[in-house]
Amino acid sequence: MSVIRVGTRSSALAMAQTTAIANRIAASSGAEVEIVPIVTHGDTSTDSLSSLGGTGVFASALREALLNDECDLLVHSLKDLPTDVYPGLVIGATPKRADARDALCARNAWTLETLPEGAKVGTGSPRRMAQLREIRPDLAVVDIRGNIDTRLGRLVEGDLDAVVLAAAGLGRLGRLDGACTQLLEISDWPTAPGQGALALEVREGKLDRVLASALAAINHATTEAVTTAERLVLARLEAGCAAPIGATAVIDTGLFFLTATVYSPDGTRKITSSHAATPESHSVRDLVDAAQDIAERVATDLLAGGAAEFAPLKVNK
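The structure corresponding to this sequence follows.
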């Protein structure tokens, strides 16, 4: 393969994270790497994320370009990738995860605790909206769209007092230190399944040897396993990526832990389940087997506890 074509959204964040991956592929393979920007409907529409059908709207145009051989692989933010199988495509690698936390970016160095009553906080995520309403029901939660600079610009303009963004995205753009006023800890503020991780998607079937070797070098087995567990909970509970669900998996001292929380959209109800497993080994296969085991147990607990009664889930039996 003389040139490896990497498809991505054309936003500043997508280009930044794709450039980093392209550089790693080039270093690993020795091949020339070309970045192919692709505009999606989600990038051009100003409608709310929920009305567009969730964050999967960003992936569809990219996937069609890959199937049409306009590129050789795609770089996705894993939290934006639908869990449903997409015919003809598979995830070829999951690089090492960045910071999975959310970041509060606020005027006057405010934190979630010190924001004044009635402060306007922007986010396009139903999960973040529910969490804000649960922790600070006195805040005015505003549904917003736009890239990171657009959202941060609304703080400067003064029509918002704070926004909640992914720490990983801010970090990849070099904006974390300058914009973030508080990192929200996972133990109190669980984030989206797969947040902070990237997914490299390829066409199903035998890959070119050079590309396959580069993907194997980039893949991070622990990240693959923990994000698989988080996304399997999402897949078991609902078909999209925009439900108010937080999930966190970690591997520590030989144990594989998974915790997931489902929120009601108004933040008045939630249910949490945690389970652990002991993988046979740290091979990818055994880690993925453990991920499937604990994800099924966590999802079963959440449903048995009534999650589908107060959250907008499309339950897969």
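The CA atoms of residues 18 and 75 lie 6 Å apart.
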